[in-house]
Specification:
The protein has 337 residues and is of the alpha+beta class. It has three domains: 67 residues, Roll (Structural Genomics Hypothetical 15.5 Kd Protein In mrcA-pckA Intergenic Region, Chain A); 83 residues, Pseudouridine synthase; 149 residues, Pseudouridine synthase (2-Layer Sandwich), CATH 3.30.2350. 20% of the residues lie in helices and 28% in strands. The longest helix has 13 residues. The protein is elongated.
Length: 337
């Protein structure tokens, strides 16, 4: 294995900086490194002063004293890269925006060790990945479920990862981040626009599922919805809605659980919409066939906006509905003969 190259930085604390925690001080001095990355380097013995190693992140800096930090080159990733076709919407040296197809898992996990978006990005990005947390890997700052399609941004380096993570953690409250989804849902809400405000946590009955739970057991979650279009059943009654959804939080399965909670689950949802399987009988033959061939939840991440982590430029992207959802909508609109 080739020897890894490393870089060193020498910094001197001023009078005004005396007494600051060294991890916080270094993070302010070296913005391209996250504080957690610096803490890991301190733990690894990479920070020294006066010939001695500083092993505690809470060490207080002293005025006029010189501190050295050694940052090793990013290690090769595990998992390994794989040749998987990607729909790249935008890419530069700091990030990449992907239009993810349904069926593609974002990150390796038990049962999905290979064939993931991360495997594909490691191969696609190659040397442009300068490392996240010291490992040459893409920085996943948000995820889409395996069978949800649409836009996803991924960081290529620590600085981009730090900025994008902060934007997603804030969920757009500071105006930098914007996300919107389109979903086909059973039924029509009483109001054309509204808010689902219900805490989410692990289901007590099935730990693999999420559920609306009490505030003491769950985490705050809020979803805004607007009905874009309504489709009728074979008898002419309003029966399916095309909804536009925006998240104020980003909990696991949030949209799917919240829509099921208000009795308007996503069409095709195999986890949270199973109680509505019989509803397909009220669709026309073409719509029933299109729903059968969908074989996933009809949910698509259609809009993504954020502040570029380096340039500060406002970035905005839109993704058209994938063919399977577009075909289902066309079938829902088609008159039955």
């Amino acid at each position: 294995m080739p020897r890894l190259h490393q870089t060193s930085r020498e910094l001197v604390a001023s009078e005004d900086e005396a007494g600051e925690r060294i991890d916080r001080w270094l993070a302010a001095k070296i913005p391209e490194l996250s504080r957690s990355r610096i803490q890991a380097l301190i733990k690894a013995g990479a920070v020294t002063s006066g010939g001695g190693t500083i092993g505690e992140a809470g060490w207080r800096v002293k005025p006029g004293r010189s501190y050295s930090i050694t940052v090793p080159e990013a290690e090769e990733p595990t998992p390994r890269g794989e040749e998987i076709a990607l729909d790249v919407v935008f890419e530069d040296g700091d990030l990449i925006v992907i239009d993810k197809p349904a069926g593609l898992v974002v990150h390796p996990a038990p049962g999905h060790e290979t064939g993931t978006l991360v495997n594909a990005l490691i191969r696609h990005c190659g040397d442009s990945l300068s490392g996240i947390g010291g490992v040459r890997r893409p920085g996943i700052v948000h995820r889409l479920d395996k069978d949800t399609s649409g836009l996803l941004v991924v960081a290529k380096n620590d600085a981009a990862h730090k900025s994008l993570s902060e934007q997603f953690a804030d969920h757009g409250r500071d105006g930098r981040l914007h996300r919107a989804y389109l979903a086909l849902c059973w039924g029509v809400p009483d109001r054309p626009s509204g808010v689902v405000d219900a805490p989410l946590g692990r289901s007590q009955a099935n730990r693999k599922k999420m559920a609306v739970v009490s505030e003491t057991l769950g985490r705050f979650a809020r979803t805004h919805y607007h009905v874009e279009k309504v489709f009728a059943d074979v008898d002419g009654h309003d029966f399916v809605s095309l909804m536009r959804l925006e998240l104020e939080t980003g909990r696991t399965h949030q949209i799917r659980v919240h829509l099921a909670h208000i009795r308007h689950p996503v069409l095709g949802d195999p986890v949270y919409g199973t109680g509505f399987k019989a509803s397909a009988r009220r669709l026309g033959e073409g719509a029933r066939e299109a729903l059968h061939h969908l074989r996933r939840q009809a949910l698509h991440a259609a809009e993504l906006g954020f502040e570029h982590p380096v340039s500060g430029q406002e970035m905005a992207f839109e993704s058209e509905l994938p063919a399977d959802m577009a075909h289902l909508i066309a079938a829902l609109e088609a008159p039955e003969t």
